Amino acid sequence: MPSRNNPTGRDNEITRITIRVFAIDGRILEVIEESFCTDTLRTIPLSSVELKPPISSSRRRSPRCLHGAWEVGPQLGEGTYFRVFRARPSQGGFSGWDFALKTIRPEFKGDRLLSERLIREAEAGAEITSAHVVPVIDARPGSFVVMPRVWGQTLSEILASGRSIPLGTAVWAARQLAQGLSTTHELGWIHGDVKPDNIILSQTGHATLIDLGFAQRVQLNLPCSSRKCDRQGTLRYLPPEMLSRSAPVLPQADTYSLGVILFELITGRQLFNQSTTEEIVRAQLSQRAPNVRCLVAHVPGSLDTLVAKMLAKDPLRRPSPDDALVKALAAVEIELLSPDPKMRDAA
């Protein structure tokens, strides 16, 4: 059938396609047809590919894109709307897959809202400079973004494994994330989707926030009814104000989400364990969060009070500014390192 890349419709005239075969020890894993500059990336059956001897690395062709050239490797992961692939620059002698390229799934290509999310992610990731927030180093507006790969495990993977996290480590991770959010807010952004899936802990304990897809600019002078308010995200970690159209979304929204995560790290349980969407929304809006000290006896009173403030239903009652939260978490870290035997055991 005639198309933009094949006006005559004859199969033998399709020439601008790169075929890459991923194999280990001679066993073919998958064949991918790549053409990012025409927004095409799909898996094709082996039967339709004529396999030839490998092309030397010096002759390998890589997809050229608007803001640079990236060689795309095997898939790292995928969500409902996006896929993430290993990537590396096609020039410069890079041998490792040290970057990640995020793009819209083929079946959602052309979706305006998803394109806008990628554009916001590119803008936020280019502006935010923090050791605890993954940057965006390249992008094709509305098509893909490129980030450094962050090595480690997501917090959700750690929690799912059943491994207990020492109290001192939990507070340390929360303090790092609060530092990253502080920089994000100072630059006029809200992360909007702080959750365990979007937090990576390295082997040395370094915490990094990823996925700025729900990032939105702070606009305190406009009510949500007259501006774009992205109130999507993961329900269990959304603050009450993001479940209501009448309340503005402030930077303290991220503080609430971080408080939910810290609650889970300390107690080993979900803040609200309701199973249906309606029940979770009702609990987020009206149910008081339990005190962590009632569930874990050795938690110091200062940390119990701090978590309760982070989980306040009213965003103006949460710790603010962000520096105050960072200092409060640092004070708890110091307290957990005190000579008191109870504190040493807790840490």
Automatic annotation (TrEMBL):
SUPFAM superfamilies listed in its UniProt record: Protein kinase-like (PK-like)
Keyword Cell inner membrane applies: no
Swiss-Prot/TrEMBL keywords: Kinase, Serine/threonine-protein kinase, Transferase
Database matches in Gene3D superfamilies: Phosphorylase Kinase, domain 1, Transferase(Phosphotransferase) domain 1
PROSITE patterns xrefs: PROTEIN_KINASE_DOM
UniProt source species: Bremerella cremea
Top-level taxonomic group: Bacteria
Name of the protein in question: Serine/threonine protein kinase
GO molecular function, one term: ATP binding
Span of domain Protein kinase: 70-330
Pfam families xrefs: Pkinase
InterPro entries: Kinase-like_dom_sf, Prot_kinase_dom, Ser/Thr_Kinases-Pseudokinases
